[in-house]
Amino acid sequence: MATLRHSNQRDAVLKDLQARYDHPTAEEVYLSVKKDFPSISLATVYRNLKLLESEGLILKITTGDSDRFDGHTHNHYHFTCNQCMKVLDVDVDSADFCTLPKDFDGVITGHSLMFFGLCSKCKN
Amino acid sequence: MATLRHSNQRDAVLKDLQARYDHPTAEEVYLSVKKDFPSISLATVYRNLKLLESEGLILKITTGDSDRFDGHTHNHYHFTCNQCMKVLDVDVDSADFCTLPKDFDGVITGHSLMFFGLCSKCKN
DNA sequence: ATTTATGCAAAGTGTTTGCATGTCT
DNA sequence: AGACATGCAAACACTTTGCATAAAT
User: Fold this and answer.
1) How many Å from the CA of B3 to C1' of D8?
2) Are residues B64 and B84 in the same domain?
3) Beta strand B107-118 with A77-81: parallel, antiparallel or unpaired?
């Protein structure tokens, strides 16, 4: 029953995400890992991203565009540029995140707050 | 240059969204509007959803799943059930939304806060 | 030896687009 | 008449899956 086995490809994907501070798409991770691992396939990257996310080792960021990934699981707050669609970290004191945009060098035109969990019907 | 013209299909899509308080996918809007408008196509629904959103008449809600739509533009806070993927409204005093989950009958296991706008590179 | 992981290509899903026809002003 | 909107089907982008082979335990 699916014991997690060691794989160089998975290591490479995780290392890549942990080494960078942008929020790459699956394709961008693929291109980056490919440099040290020319034979890796995009499907393997997708499989391992999903696996690593379910292990809680990385974060998937859902945007209107392609999904993006974050190797740093401690920061849950992000900023998406409507133009280039990049995702940036926003340093936030999570106890007081209502005041966060002060030291930020972009223009914030809106935000969305999403809660995840189980609704009253599904929680049982 | 693209003067907005009247169309019964567009009216039907907007009316449907304004009459309901769930957050349907494009397909769900399509199925619903189809009842009173058997000849409508899914492509037309997609085109009109996009149009209505750009007019600010409806809201698009991006989730990990299919996009969902909201005919009530005043409420920006939502809750997604991880199981059924439905989106529910969460009544929030937007001046103090840190305290919102109190009267909620589901289980909240996480949340995500997303800001939209232009980054320092794109804002010019 | 057994079972998981990989690479490739094919299939899948949700959404968008080209084009001829229909509809609005 | 002229421009926008529609319906259909084909195209699209992103992601997932089936299968045979390779690697890990």
Assistant:
1) 25
2) no
3) parallel
The 8-class DSSP code of residue A35 comes to H
Q: How does residue B100 score in pLDDT terms, banded at 50, 70 and 90?
A: very low
Q: Give the structural domain span for B111.
A: 77-117
Question: In A2-123, at which residue ranges do the beta strands (DSSP E only) sit?
Answer: 59-61, 68-70, 77-81, 87-89, 107-118
Mean pLDDT of B90-99: 52
The residue among B103 and B107 whose pLDDT is bigger is B107
Q: Looking at the DSSP assignment, which residues form a beta bridge with residue B116?
A: A80, A110
Q: Which residues of B touch A108 (CB under 8 A)?
A: 115-117
Is A122 part of any domain? Answer: no
Q: Would you state the structure tokens that stand for residue B26, as one six-digit string? A: 């494009």
Position B89 scores a pLDDT of: 76
